[in-house]
Specification:
The protein folds into 3 domains: 127 residues, Response regulator (Rossmann fold, 3-Layer(aba) Sandwich); 92 residues, no CATH class; 260 residues, P-loop containing nucleotide triphosphate hydrolases (Rossmann fold, 3-Layer(aba) Sandwich), CATH 3.40.50.300. The chain has 22 helices and 15 strands. The C terminus is likely disordered. Strands 10-11-9-12-8-13-14-15 form an 8-stranded mixed sheet, sandwiched between helices. A 5-stranded parallel sheet has the order 2-1-3-4-5, sandwiched between helices.
Length: 509
């Protein structure tokens, strides 16, 4: 048994913990006085004993929950102050932390007994003095003043402010991160202004207020030296965009491909096609996972499954996501390649998927999600999680195909309460001899039609011959068609020539 005790630096603590370890026969006992550092290490231990007064500001329920999230296979025992039925114990009870011990009961014998026999929900309810299961719900978006103060103190105390900042936010939800950044004093904001991740969150905070300052470091190379020039530019209300493409991997792949090619956005495509994932083949990707990624006992060729596994354990963060997503030959296009385990079909849970999307939208300007057309499969699952996603509905231009799609969307709207404004129709594999007039399409789709993409004989041949990388076979007409569609989706493709050249030179060849 391995035990870690997160305790205040007080006389007699070591003797008590040593006695506890001896009674339990523990082969590894660690005593830590720094909560922020200790919470990163708890995953290695079977028992975590955390004293509420380990910091100058008492630990909150959120702090104890973070310990439990990090210690997936062990038990967390909070040693707490306070009274029975207090808000603290209500929050612990609500979060499934049933083994807290009031200060007056914190004897070695009591702790040993609790480790040998954990409380169940009923025991915890009685011990905590909770008279109703209807415990008070506290918003997960807000951090306590004590948590904010500890985070700021920790960041200032680290040798590298950016590393300290990343460490302090890695276990927070996105709303909590934004709330924390809002509380930062000006000197700390100044110290972090060149941090990519800090600028990302600051931009999210100011995206609804007109403009935001974003720091870009440009390097000018001369014969003598490299001169760094800091340029402050205005970021005009840059939005994060989420698109779900229903039942057409080719269209999804090409939309993401053209967004990366025609704009300066960082783009991610997530392949949630369970049976026949094709995005990697369409792109001609040689590798579907990155080297050096080891996630427990998971063996997979799917970077999506890697991200999903980490998100299930609630440990997915900015840096891990960046290391898992596979880069396309365009430097601004990344892929979470599709499922390679048929046993996972229809088994993806809402919470990890939601966590993947939340973090993806923190990092990328545009996120495309490829899902099958079966509304009782991934679509129903995904739209519950992200009702703000724009659903792109491909059809082949014919009356029959459009009628079927309209019926499907009617069912989805009824089941998922999907907003009309979040649905866009797009004609793909367009056949002029059987297609409806565009005026009729606009009328039937209530003006939600955003354009067409032609599918000529060369691309059909490339697809049917199972050649990899057939996005490259798009002709100039297709690129112009996609530019019009991207404009309809709110992207600025009218970039300056100098910027376009710079983007092209920055891509892998």
């Amino acid at each position: 048994m391995k035990i870690i005790a997160i305790m205040p630096d007080a006389q007699g603590v070591k003797e008590i913990i040593d006695a506890l370890g001896k009674q339990l026969g523990a082969d590894d006992i660690s005593i830590r006085n720094n909560y922020t550092q200790a919470k990163k290490a708890v995953a290695e231990y079977d028992v975590v004993i955390a004293h509420q007064n380990v910091t100058s500001t008492p630990l909150s329920a959120d702090d104890f929950e973070q310990l439990q999230d990090n210690c997936r296979n062990g038990v967390v025992i909070p040693l707490i102050n306070g009274e029975k039925g207090s808000e603290l114990v209500q929050r612990l009870f609500q979060g499934g932390l049933y083994n807290a011990i009031y200060q007056e009961d914190s004897s070695t014998e009591y702790i040993v007994g609790l480790i040998n026999k954990h409380r169940n929900r009923s025991d915890a309810k009685e011990y905590y003095g909770i008279t109703s299961s209807d415990v008070k719900v506290v918003s997960e978006h807000i951090l306590s003043d004590g948590q904010v103060k500890r985070a700021i103190d920790y960041i200032r105390a680290t040798n590298d402010v950016e590393d300290g900042f990343k460490s302090s936010i890695e276990n927070l939800s996105t709303p909590q991160k934004l709330y924390l950044i809002q509380q930062f004093p000006e000197d700390l904001k100044e110290s972090l202004k060149e941090s990519e991740i800090y600028v990302t969150y600051e931009r999210m905070l100011t995206s609804n207020t007109g403009t935001a300052k974003q720091v870009i470091i440009e390097q000018t190379i001369t014969k003598e030296t490299v001169v760094e020039k800091t340029q402050v530019i205005q970021n005009l209300n840059r939005n994060r965009r989420l698109f779900t493409v229903m039942g057409n991997s080719e269209l999804c792949a090409e939309l993401a491909y053209m967004t990366a090619k025609q704009t300066s956005e960082d783009v991610l495509i997530i392949d949630i096609e369970s049976f026949v994932p094709e995005i990697d083949r369409i792109y001609g990707m040689k590798e579907t996972v990155n080297d050096g990624i080891s996630i427990g006992n998971l063996v997979t060729s799917s970077s999506f499954l890697q991200a999903y596994e980490v998100a299930t354990s609630k440990n997915l963060n900015y840096d891990l996501f960046r290391s898992i997503a596979v880069q396309h030959r365009f430097k601004n296009l990344f892929v979470l390649t599709g499922n390679d385990n048929l046993g996972k079909h229809e088994s993806f849970n809402h919470e990890p998927l939601n966590r993947i999307i939340d973090i993806a939208l923190d990092i990328f300007g545009a996120v495309y999600v490829n899902i099958p057309a079966d509304i009782y499969n991934a679509l129903a699952l995904f739209m519950i999680i992200n009702p703000k996603s724009t659903l792109v509905v491909p059809f082949d231009g014919s009356a029959i195909s459009l009628a079927n799609k309209l019926q499907t969307i009617k069912l989805i709207k009824s089941a998922q309460q999907l907003s009309d404004k979040n649905v866009k129709y797009l004609a793909f594999e367009y056949h002029p001899n059987v297609s409806l007039d565009e005026g009729d399409i606009r009328k039937l789709t209530d003006g939600k039609y955003i354009g067409k993409v032609s599918y000529d004989i060369g691309r059909i041949k490339a697809r049917n011959d199972f050649k990899s990388g057939y996005t490259d076979s798009m002709v100039k007409r297709n690129e112009e068609e996609y530019k019009l569609i991207l404009d309809k989706l709110g992207f600025d493709t009218k970039t300056k020539l100098s910027t376009r050249i710079k983007n092209l030179l920055g891509r892998n060849k």
